[in-house]
Every structure is written in C-alpha cells, then in structure tokens.
Amino acid sequence: MAKDISKLLEGWDYDPDRVSVRIVMGDDGREKIQLRLDLGLLQLEFDGRPDGKRAGGCASWFDFYQRKQRDLDADNPDGKPFELESEDCVRLLREGVQYYHRYVSFWHLERYELCARDTSRNLRLFAFVRQYARHTKDKLQFDQWRPYVTMMHARAVATPLIGLKEYGAALGAIDAGIRAIRAFLKEYDQLQNADNCSELAYLLGWREEIASKHAGDDPADVPYDPLVKLQAELEQAVSEERFEDAARLRDTIRQHSQGPGSDPAGTL
Questions:
Q1: How far apart (Å, rounded) are the C-alpha atoms in residues 32 and 249?
Q2: Which of 35, 13, 32 is nearest to 24 (CA)?
Q3: How far apart (Å, rounded) are the C-alpha atoms in residues 92 and 95?
Q4: What DSSP assignment string belongs to 99-136?
Q5: Which pLDDT tens digit goes with each residue over 66-117?
Q6: What is the b/e burial string over 147-178, where b = at least 16 CB atoms within 10 angstroms of the residue's CB?
Q7: Would you say residue 23 has pLDDT above 50?
Q8: What is the value of pTM for the model shown?
Q9: Burial class (CB in 10 A: 0-12, 13-18, 19+), 113
C-alpha cells in the first residue's frame, strides 16, 4: 500500500482562517471524519474513541478508570478511596483532546447532536477527574476548559432546536449552560470576574438575541407538517441527551425534507 498521503490532500488546501473538515467513506464501509491540518490531516471515527482503538480492555481510558473506581469502592467500602495518579490523568487528557477534535469537527459539519454527545462526555470526564485526581494541578489542567466545553455543549443542544422553531427549549438549553458557567465561577470564587468570561458573555448575548427576535412566537400557530412527530421526537431525544437517537432522527428529517436521493451527512 502507498504510504504517501499527498493524493489525499490534492485539491484540499489548508486554510488557517477556517476549520476544514469532511466526511469520507472508510475502507471498512463506515463513515470517517477527516480534519485538515497544515501538515496533513487527522482521521477520526464517528463512534467510540476517535482513534478507533480500545484502552485497557475497555472502550476508552475514561471507561477503564470508571470501572476501576467502581470495582475498588465496591470491594473495599471502608478502605482507601480510589485516586487518579498524574500518569492516569495524562492518559485521560490525551484521550480528551481526541474528543475535542471530534466535537469541533461535528460542530462545523452541523452534526450538532454528535457534537453534544462528545461535549457531554468530556464534561463528565472533567467531573470524574475533579472528584478522584490526587493532585490539584491535575484537576485544574482539565477543569480550566469547563466553561468552553459547557458553552459548546449549550450551542450544540440549542442550535437544532432553533432550527425546529422550538425556541423555549433552545432557551432552556442556553440557560442551563449559563447556570453551569456561573456555578464554575462561584466554585473558584470568580463571580466578581464574570464580565471577563467570554463563554458566559457569548451565551448571554445569544440568549438575548433569540429571546428578542422570537418573542411571542407560538408553535401552535405553525401549520401542521407531516414531520412534526419526528421533530417532537428529536426535541425529546436532545432534551434527554440521547444524542445517538437524536442524530438518527435528524438524518431522517433531512432525508424527508430534501427528498429522495439526498445525502444526509454532507461535507464541508
């Protein structure tokens, strides 16, 4: 097999001012994400670890350490509590960066439910490290990114709801993000610096824009559409954070909306 990737990059120049990402079909028949970098590309799996590998016999290092924590606490309820050492946190951080590349790719591909799935995963990772890391420096290495990932999660949940004209549900998702970032600032005794938090400022401004633009909009005034049931199921799936179900429903809605023969994935 040829190892030179030059042909893969022909006609796909790197642009430092934008995220260049596309979906391709892999040799195994599954869709892959390709993210263009200045010196090549990253290829990511849609599901599981973005690199397609397993870790410690589990689906990910996060799953591995969660299982280890549960087993230790169950076997030794009165013993020494589970702790993450610095080398454990290094593994988890490297893995978390993989998910970062993938959720950013999903965002730019407008696969919002999958972006929400991966941001939710990293937020759970941060909470796990906060609870179990032995050293404060390791906790902070993860938790410094919590406002940004919280903002991205709120955007990923709210954006498709806005597309469905479910403005109340979208504002609810944004409000949840605002509360979470304020809780973060309070936790670190930084509420007095809330005006300097760009993620909080973004969500507050976005909320005001949506609320003012769509004040008084009532979904009951919208004429019946045969996709209403699917859209309602999508809204419920997003609100319950069943992101894989939401992604399938969104693809179905796209196919019905665009007609037969359309490509629900698309590329950028």
A1: 20
A2: 32
A3: 5
A4: HHHHHHHHHHTT-HHHHHHHHHHHHHHHHHHHHHBSSH
A5: 999 999 988 888 888 899 999 999 999 999 999 999 999 999 999 999 999 9
A6: bbbbbbbbbbbbbbbbebebbebbbbbbebbb
A7: yes
A8: 0.79
A9: buried
For residue 50, the tally of other CB atoms under 10 A from its CB is: 25
DSSP state of 133: B
Helices 112-132 and 136-143, packing angle to 10 deg: 170
**CA separation for the pair 71, 88 (Å, rounded):** 17
Q: Residue 227 gets which letter from DSSP?
A: T
Q: Is 85 helix (H, G, I), strand (E, B) or coil?
A: coil
Cα distances (Å, whole numbers) of residue 81 to 35, 64, 68, 91, 139: 40, 17, 11, 20, 17
Structure tokens at 225: 């559409």
Contact 118, 55 (CB under 8 A): no
Decide if 40 contacts 9 (C-beta within 8 A). yes
The two three-digit tokens of residue 66, written as one number: 């969660």
Task: Judge whether 190 and 212 are in contact, CB under 8 Å.
Answer: no
Q: What is the pLDDT of residues 214-237, one digit of tens each?
A: 766 644 444 434 455 566 677 667
Q: 201 Cβ partners below 8 Å, 6+ apart?
A: 195
Give the Cα separation of 202 and 196 in Å (integer). Answer: 11
Measured from the Cβ of residue 245, the count of other Cβ atoms closer than 10 Å reads 16
**Residues 126, 122: Cα–Cα separation, whole Å:** 6
Which tokens sit at 180? 């979470």
What helix, strand, coil percent values describe the chain, rounded to 5? 60, 10, 30
